[in-house]
Design a protein that fits this description.
Number of strands: 17
Strand order of the largest sheet: 4-8-7-2-17-10-11-12-9
Number of domains: 1
Structural class: mainly beta
Number of helices: 0
Largest sheet: 9 strands, mixed
Strand content: over 45%
Order of helices and strands: EEEEEEEEEEEEEEEEE
Radius of gyration: 19 Å
Shape: globular
Helix content: under 10%
Signal peptide: 1-26
Keywords: Signal
Distance between the termini: 25 Å
């Protein structure tokens, strides 16, 4: 396993997810698998909602993409029916500074003997948390850059660089203040399948969402698995705890 040093980020598909109130499901702390409604613009691999103890909840979204493909979707959840619907939607970028950290980097030099057989790929997946008026609060972005090359009848994947980008609104457009608690990442490679598993995380908190004496926490995890010839899958999870955590919604942007 490779662990990162501190440092940077990056690429093509966007999703926006709305989390239901924790009162929507029975307080049995079980995971609820949601099914797509007819007319959804994209069918995701999996969407799950879990009510957690201690005033918390978790939303998990998994999907797939391909380098250089760019789309944006909003996901609406019907908590009574246990369904979701994806709708195309664009979203403006936040204007505040963000920080990027390099997890792995190697010079992008092609092997002379394999130069004609190499292809380079990039995948970015961002998990963004917003408040009810849709003000951006915090996000964590996973960027994986890799190459696929052929050696005779065999093909291989290699990481060329990877990054985690983290950001917290301080202040947000509605003058709430969010702080970065922790961030990081690591990657591994399966030598049998050649899949590259790149995981990053960012943890954030706030004390003035409503009551200045109560805290709200957001924990974001984003995994990208790079596959051959630019294909990839992603797995995102957002854990929220504390004051009015059920009012927060999450958006996913891919590339």
């Amino acid at each position: 396993m490779k662990f990162f040093a501190k440092g940077l980020v990056g690429c093509a598909l966007s999703l926006i997810l709305v989390i239901p109130s924790t009162a929507a499901f029975a307080a049995d702390e079980k995971t609820h698998k949601l099914v797509p409604e007819s007319g959804s613009a994209i069918i995701l691999t999996n969407v799950e909602y879990t009510e957690l103890p201690d005033n918390g909840s978790k939303i998990r979204i998994t999907g797939s993409g391909k380098a250089n493909e760019k789309q944006t979707f909003k996901i609406e959840i019907n908590r009574e029916k246990g369904t979701y619907k994806t709708i195309p939607e664009e979203r403006k970028q936040e204007k505040q500074d963000k920080k990027s950290v390099g997890i792995y980097s190697t010079p992008l030099v092609k092997t002379p003997l394999l130069a004609s057989n190499e292809t380079f790929h990039s995948a970015k997946v961002k998990l963004l948390t917003v408040d009810p008026p849709q003000a951006d609060l915090c996000y964590t972005q996973n960027e994986l850059n890799w190459k696929t090359y052929l050696d005779g009848s065999y093909w291989y994947n290699d990481v060329t660089s990877s990054y985690v980008t983290y950001w917290a609104a301080n202040p947000s457009t509605l003058l709430t203040h969010w702080f970065v608690d922790n961030y990081g990442g690591s990657w591994t490679k399966d030598n049998n399948t050649q899949d590259i598993n790149h995981n990053v995380y960012g943890y954030y908190h706030n004390y003035d969402f409503q009551d200045n004496n109560l805290r709200t926490d957001v924990q974001q995890n984003v995994t990208v698995i790079g596959k051959k010839f630019g294909e990839f899958t992603y797995d995102t999870s957002a854990y929220t705890y504390g004051e009015y955590e059920y009012l927060l919604t999450h958006h996913i942007q891919v590339n």
